[in-house]
Every structure is written in C-alpha cells, then in structure tokens.
Amino acid sequence: MLTFENVSQHYGSFRALNGISLQAKEGELVVLLGANGAGKSTIFLTASGLNKATGGSIRFRNQELVGMRPSQVVQLGVVQCPEGRKLFPQMSVLQNLMLGAYVHRNDKAGNQRMLDDVFQLFPILAERKDQAAGSLSGGQQQMVAIGRAMMGRPQALLLDEPSLGLAPLVVKQVFEVIQRINRAGTTVVLAEQNAYAALKIAHRAYVIESGRIVMEGDPASMLGNPDIRKAYIGA
Question: Edge to edge, what strands does the sheet with 55-60 contain?
C-alpha cells in the first residue's frame, strides 16, 4: 500500500535518510522505532511532500508521491499527524479539526460525517469543541491533533510520536484509539520512542538508526530481542 524504495533525503552534506526501504501493507499497523534524530520524522515529512526526497521512490497504491504537493498527497489518502501536535492554540477545537478537512472543503456532508466519527473517537472533544485548543490538557490536545488528521480522511495515517509528553494513563488511552482506527480499516504507520506500548499494538516494526533501517521484524521478536529491550524498553 505505502512503499519506500531506497529513499534518501539530504540537508546539504548531511544525510537524514540513507537508502530507506520499508512498507506498510493494507490494514497493517507498522511501528518505526528509533531515538531522537534517527530519521523517523524525516520519513514522514518526505512521504507527505513537505521534504523533497533526493533519491528513491515512495509509492502509495502504485502512485508515485515523490514530487507531489502536500495537498495532493492528502487528497490521495496519506495524512500525517505531526510530532508536537502543531495546533493553533487560540483557535477553537472545532476550528482546528476543520482545518484537517481543508482539501475536502467542498464536501460539507462528508466533513460532517467525519466530524461525527471524530467525536465518537474522542467524546471529550465534542464537549469542548468551542474551547480554545491551547487551553486543553496535553492529552486532549493530542486527541485534537489525531482528530484533525482523521478529518483528512486518511487511508494511510502517519502518526509521529503521539505519546510524547503524556502521562502513562493518557498514553494507554491514545494507543487504544490508534488501535481502533486501525481495526476500522485505516493503515497506520506509527513513529514512537515508547517501544513497549507501540509493539503491543503493532503488526510489524522497523528500527531506524542514523537514517538507516537496521532491523525489521514482528513485535514478539522485537520484544524478545535483548538489544531492542536494552535500547528502547529499558529492561
């Protein structure tokens, strides 16, 4: 469904991605593990058209994404939820959510259906839809960020560090929602440092170091690997 083949991305002489090849099949939940600076966010930014790949191919359902504008990528069904939420704090929850539907702005009925779906996923957002997004708790802001991405009607959802800065109980709630989104039919690629929580819901995982894929496997083998446990789980 979403395939990277030998993708490179350079910032001047610095190689942020160095021959990345990975894939997320239809209906999968795939996890990208790696420390800060490993290249996880760069993978997402490059797939989304916000960064320009300097080599290789990124294909979504046999359509080449490299060279497309970000809006075209979203219209195809590849939607990113960025690290750090990137909300507009003075705007209301509802206004932030509707920004995610901008490429579908002419389909008001469809956008209302998606909004209803988002409010089913996150009932608290329906209660606080007129409240300024910046006044919400960190967990609720993350819900807005995920909800905004869902308003883009993703077929492949790229989630970048959704657990960052959240309390353990909130992390559990967010990961339960991510699993629900996946089970409803959306392919999910999840970039995470919280390896244990991510592997518990994943179908497959990749480990990224210094812009390279250094390991691929199923969650059970990753959890049982002593190097992975030492580096990412602390056990």
Answer: 14-24, 2-11, 55-60, 63-64
Residue 168 phi, psi (nearest 5): -55, -40
Q: Are strands 156-160 and 78-81 parallel, antiparallel or unpaired?
A: parallel
Kindly list the domain boundaries of the chain, sorted by start residue: 1-77+156-235, 85-153
Distance (Å, whole) CA 194 – CA 171: 9
Beta partners for 228?
none
C-beta contacts of 59-65 below 8 A and 24+ residues apart: 59/2, 59/3, 59/5, 60/1, 60/2, 60/3, 60/156, 61/1, 61/155
Say which CATH class 1-77+156-235 falls into.
alpha beta
**pLDDT tens digit at each of 235 positions of the chain:** 999 999 999 888 788 999 999 999 999 999 999 888 899 999 999 999 999 999 999 999 989 999 999 999 999 999 999 998 899 999 999 999 999 999 999 999 999 999 999 999 999 999 999 999 999 999 999 999 999 999 999 999 999 999 998 999 999 999 999 999 999 999 999 999 888 889 999 999 999 999 999 999 999 988 888 878 877 776 5
Q: Give the three-state DSSP class for 199.
A: helix
Compute the distance between CA of residue 136 and CA of residue 50 in angstroms, rounded to an integer. 28
| CA distances, 198 to each of 21, 113, 215 (Å) | 20, 29, 16
CB 211 within 8 A of CB 201: no
